[in-house]
Amino acid sequence: MPSLPLPVRKGRSVSIWVFGVLGFVTLGLVAYFVYALGAGASITGMVLALIPLAIVLAGVRLIDRWEPEPRSLVLFALAWGAVGSIGLTLLFDLALTVAAGQRNDFFVGVIQAPIVEEVTKGIGLLLIFAMGRRTFDGPVDGVVYGALVGAGFAFTENIQYFGVSLIEGGAVQLTLTFIMRGLASPFAHAMFTALTGFAIGLAARRGARAGGVLGAAATGMIGAIALHAYWNGSSLLGDFLVLYLTTQVPLFVGFILTIVALRREETRLTRERLAEYAQAGWFTPQEVMMLATPAGRRTALRWAAGLREDRTKLMRSFIHDATALAAVRQRAVHGHDAYAAADEHALLLRSRATRAALLAY
Questions:
Q1: For residues 149 and 57, is the Cβ–Cβ distance under 8 A?
Q2: Which of 185, 191, 251, 253 has its CA 20 to 30 A from that of 336?
Q3: For residues 349 and 147, what is the distance between their CA atoms, to the nearest angstrom?
Q4: What whole-number distance in Å separates Cα of residue 114 and Cα of residue 222?
Q5: Which of 354, 352, 342, 356 is nearest to 6 (CA)?
Q6: Residue 191 near residue 72, CB atoms below 8 Å
Q7: Side-chain-side CA neighbours of residue 145 (13 Å)
């Protein structure tokens, strides 16, 4: 196909300089872990921490398949959680230790950690919103970005927990810690911060301005802090196994059901917006059902795979551009995207060209 126009990149990507700053902070964190834990324990912790990270990323991928977020923002979300948020949390802990001395486990686990960690992770979400406003369309996007920030944070935190367990209790304690943090609750941090992301995404969907977004973020952080504090408190107060089975597991199930409901809402909005283009003659009603329903997409991809020279890649492009077009239309309806017209023009031209390539003989 000839070269096709692309949507405007402004408001959809992260500057390379931002990653440069995070890279510099990463060097400091590496030095901290090597100094505090030693190279061997740090490497062991990092390798084991990759397992729960992979589990969470697989889950986020399932959520994000409908309308994938830009790669640079996905990477920034992970990097902020793993580096930026961890760095701020460590600095605050150091400052508090200097000012007030050592604190007991209850204060650190149930009060300090939930407040400091959820605020620093929430700052990352606000940065994502500021840099990638034109891709932060609704609650699903907020949940995705929040889960990614939480996954990054848990990854680095797990390095420390696993490393300390290895040093203090050898393989037995390390195994127990890995089971509890890596297998029994890998989604904990992702779930906490997803609440903040959900609140920001809901405000974005409603066209809220800066004050409304900040208010929504604060509300989301309060919910995240409360859930985080309860989660941590269950390991310090009462029978952890009973609390885990009676409250934490149902909370996680509720989280999954909420994600399913949000995905269905995204499907409905995509179908509604593409139907508007169908009325204007850009798509047929059959194409709307094909592009805006999971079953239609699966059928379309199988059909494209059976065409001459396997046109699956073209069909994926057609689906991607149509989904982006529906999101652009949704932003235009609320009037908070100055580049909506330019994006709409580019995506309509791309969709028309891709359709022609799919049907060419």
A1: no
A2: 191
A3: 34
A4: 10
A5: 342
A6: no
A7: 35
Give, to the nearest 10 degrees, the angle between helix 39-64 and helix 188-205. Answer: 40
Identify the helix (H) or strand (E) that includes residue 64.
helix 39-64
DSSP for 232-292? Answer: HHTTTSS-HHHHIIIIIHHHHHHHHHHHHHHHHHHHHHHHHHHHHHHHTTSS-HHHHHHHS
Give the residue carrying structure tokens 């030095």. Answer: 31
Q: Please give the DSSP secondary-structure letter assigned to residue 10.
A: T
Ramachandran area for residue 309 (φ above 0: left; ψ -120 to 50: alpha; else beta): left
pLDDT in tens, 282-322: 999 999 999 999 999 999 999 999 988 889 999 999 999 99
Q: Looking up tokens 């090597």, which residue turns up? A: 34
Closest of 352, 324, 354, 356 to residue 340, by C-alpha: 324
Which candidate, 115, 147, 123, 149, places its Cα nearest to that of 229?
A: 115
pTM for the complete prediction? 0.92
Identify the DSSP state of 320.
Answer: H
Q: Identify the burial level of 332 via C-beta atoms within 10 angstroms of its C-beta, where 0-12 means exposed, 13-18 middle and 19 or more buried.
A: middle
124-136 pLDDT, tens digit per residue, is: 999 999 998 888 8
